[in-house]
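User: Please run a holo structure prediction.
Assistant: Happy to. Please share the sequence and the ligand.
User: Here you go; the ligand is coenzyme A.
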Amino acid sequence: MLKIIDYRDEYEEGWLRCRVLAYLHTSMFEDVETKKPTFENRPSIELIAIENGEIVGILDMILDDEALKTTALGEGLGAFLQVIAVHPDHQNKGIGQRLYEQAVTRLKCFNVTFIELYTRGDEPANNFYKKLGFEKRVEYYDVFGIEKGLRSPISIEMKDGRVYAQDEKGQSCDYVITEGVYEVYNLEALEKIDYDRYYPAIGYYKRLS
Ligand SMILES: CC(C)(COP(=O)(O)OP(=O)(O)OC[C@H]1O[C@@H](n2cnc3c(N)ncnc32)[C@H](O)[C@@H]1OP(=O)(O)O)[C@@H](O)C(=O)NCCC(=O)NCCS
């Protein structure tokens, strides 16, 4: 039988496996956690869905308080849905929705008025949030590449276990940039970047009743 319970440290390995497998075949595949994030002294809701001893779903929410606000899409205090993920062998069976509903029930004890989250373009996740009543509030782009002009040709020599690099003018280089992630707020700026891939990053908002 499936149960939704609070996360405890003893579940960390199962939590990590569930997260990495859930993200594997999404556009967020590079976003791997190797430790369960903790939220220090901040108010949070950390749930797991467990079935026959296996963690099949996870949810973390960080709540704004008077001391610190994480959300940006709404006025006043909100809840930031940092992660919701269901193990791929158990998706599309209502587990994500149950996790979400349990979190919303818990939120009634807190002084927050909305939920905010960000995701990329994956259809299951976008359908999921729309079905739960979220509205799209903002869109920008996560672009994987390097700004044109930042990568200049270098020559490399490997000697005695070390790499010696020189730029076109013969100056030695101790480091070069290979690739990074850019948050792009205006799609026209894409022409300034040599990129491998890019995704929409979509911010969703839902007012709590
Ligand atoms: C998004 C996710 C958490 C949904 O969890 P889930 O348990 O599979 O979803 P549920 O069974 O509760 O489905 C609820 C609704 O989501 C949508 N949905 C879920 N899976 C879907 C799929 N494969 N394709 C299209 N829509 C889908 C549907 O609208 C569904 O409602 P319906 O069954 O009435 O059609 C899950 O697909 C997942 O872990 N995805 C990978 C990780 C991820 O993208 N997380 C969000 C990061 S921001």
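The two ends are 30 Å apart (CA to CA).
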